[in-house]
Amino acid sequence: MRHVLEVQETVRTCADCGLCCTEAHNSVRIVASEARRIAAHLALLEPRRRAELMARVEGSIKKYRLTASRKTHYTCPFLEADMRCAIPLDVKPVACLAFNPLTQDACDQEPEWYAAAHEVEVTASRVGMEEPSLKPIPVALMDALHENDARDTPRPLR
Question: Hey, where are the domains in the chain?
């Protein structure tokens, strides 16, 4: 997060851009620990706002036919109409944080920074005894939410 804030102050701000979040460029895939962080954030939102964002997540899955295995470009459901992100910096996936302005005119993912930061997420997945598979943000989020539902559902006594 420090790196992103530094880039925003010294190179160029991303305000009012959002191009990297659109289907023109975005094919971000995340691990389960990142999806759970987004799910936890959504759980804290006011119910109407949460429902609005979840409708966008579900719409994105349908529109772009997103699946865990299909690699495709899609517009992130958290991209707001004003081109800002609906999720705060401390909740964003590493891949989103690693895509920054490199010059006044060009943006790209910073591969060295991404690799180091992504390894932290992969390690978190392995510590949780999960295979760190990558999925599109909406698909990974729905999986995390279903995981939460399964954990919260009371089991019948035998």
Answer: 2-150
